Amino acid sequence: MTKQKEYEYIIIGAGVAGCSTAYFLSKYSKSILLIDKNENVSAGASGAAGAFLSPLLGKPNKFKDLISTALRFSTSFYKELNTESFKNEGVCRIPKNDDYREKFESYKPFMDFEYKILEDGYFFEVGSWVNPSEICDLLTQKINKKLNYNIDSIKRKDNIWILNDEIKTKNLILCTGANTKLIKEKYFDIRAVWGQKIDVLTSTNVKFNYHKECSVSKAVKTQKDNIYKVFIGATHHRFDSKEAYTQDIINEDSLKLIDLANDIIKLKDVNIIDIKLGARASSTDYFPMVGSLIDSKKSFEKFPHLINGTHIKDDMLEKIENLYVINGVGGRGFVLSPYLANELVENIINNKKIAETITTCRLFKRWAKKQKNK
Ligand SMILES: Cc1cc2nc3c(=O)[nH]c(=O)nc-3n(C[C@H](O)[C@H](O)[C@H](O)COP(=O)(O)OP(=O)(O)OC[C@H]3O[C@@H](n4cnc5c(N)ncnc54)[C@H](O)[C@@H]3O)c2cc1C
Predict the structure, then answer these.
(1) Which of 22, 210, 294, 333 is most open to solvent, judged by the fewest CB atoms within 10 Å of its CB?
(2) What is the pLDDT of residues 337-367, one digit of tens each?
(3) How far apart are alpha carbons 273 and 230 in whole angstroms?
(4) H/E stretch holding 135
């Protein structure tokens, strides 16, 4: 019998989170396997995304700080890839009504990125767009992959993770997006926010990306004169499963997206050529979850007073050994993932501390307190 190969790292999930993780990890290890149940990378939410990169506007808060930090990191990361699949051509942000116009005014002292007043809104040069499948392909072109392969079980034996009773790895990284079946921890509460994006042909030459109530991309030339491709996204539905997505809802959403786009810029001779659906993975507090998974059973055994809200330092909580996650990147996966993947890899390899706001600890502690009344 041939000896089964054992990997140093296996990443489950080849969306932008898993592909970014594989990319940064490959600087340190040659023994990586990227697994996905789909035939191609970027076939989950990542394949449905716009995928626009745009600043978050608002008064200072921790979430805005995270998005701005990630946007800076990811924009220069995509630029360094030197690829046509990343287009940094700016975004015009238009307030959706008078209330928002007032809000935007009040945000002016707190803008994290340069802007100028343009048309009916604010133009940010940092705004950009990536081709999701091309970027995921590029990030993983040198990575060993096993596609079209669903992981049903993960087990731990003799300090090794065994997947589907046949593939072994020392370290396991779960980047499975809205599908969290492999994670048995109850505090790991990820909710799916389904959404739709459409690609259209139009005779209108949209000059740059816009965002109002939806995003409209800059026009991409086609082989036909005066016919351009434009991407419009996205809608939001809290469905429990894809089955809830009826053809009627898809049709209504397509019309709604075209209406919202026309409210920004009148698109002439519109013809829908592609519709994509995907489930964004959203955590209960909208911050992502990155790093080791807390072992709730062992942590409770060690610190029974956790249930009373007693403060325990994050480092003291029991972690599931050599199991890591990146999840909860919500509607900003292409902004967050390269930044978070780099943070995770630096944590695993060089022990760099992960910021408290994005660890799994915060949700574990919140959940632990709630167990008292149960
Ligand atoms: C319509 C729409 C528009 C969007 N627009 C934008 C945008 O403009 N800008 C932006 O930044 N973000 C946008 N997003 C959000 C972005 O797409 C997501 O945040 C991002 O794609 C999530 O990446 P992920 O890698 O976490 O998840 P996914 O891309 O869903 O990847 C998870 C992968 O794990 C695989 N998997 C799960 N379980 C298993 C298993 N047991 N075995 C094997 N494989 C498994 C799945 O097949 C999947 O490929 C949009 C999302 C949608 C739906």
Answers:
(1) 294
(2) 999 999 999 999 999 999 999 999 999 998 9
(3) 10
(4) helix 132-139
Q: What is the pLDDT of residues 188-211, one digit of tens each?
A: 999 999 999 999 999 999 999 999
C-alpha 343/C-alpha 352 separation (Å) is 8
Cβ 74 under 6 angstroms from ligand 1: no
Give the type of residue at 120.
D
| Pocket-testing residue among 329, 335, 340, 344, ligand 1, by greatest number of atoms within 8 A of Cβ | 329
- How far is the C-alpha of 207 from the C-alpha of 216, rounded, in Å? 10
Q: What is the pLDDT of residues 25-55, one digit of tens each?
A: 999 999 999 999 999 999 999 999 989 999 9
Closest CA to 145 of 36, 43, 46: 36
Contacts of 82 (CB under 8 A, 6+ apart): none
The answer, yes or no, to whether residue 374 has pLDDT greater than 60, is yes
Q: How far is the CA of 113 from the centre of ligand 1 (A)?
A: 27
Give CA–CA dist 370/159, Å, rounded.
Answer: 32
Candidates 129, 124, 127; CA nearest to 197 is 129
Q: How far apart are CA 85 and CA 102, in angstroms?
A: 36
Q: What tokens were used for 104?
A: 């935007």
- pLDDT tens by residue, 306-321: 888 888 899 999 999 9
Q: What is the pLDDT, as a whole number, of residue 2?
A: 55
Domains by residue range for the chain, with CATH: 1-51+131-184+284-374 (3.50.50.60), 191-283 (3.30.70)
Separation of CA 353 and ligand 1 centre (Å): 26
In single-letter form, the type of residue at position 20 comes to S
Is the entire prediction scored with pTM above 0.70?
A: yes
Torsion of CA 244, 248, 249, 255, to 10 degrees: 170
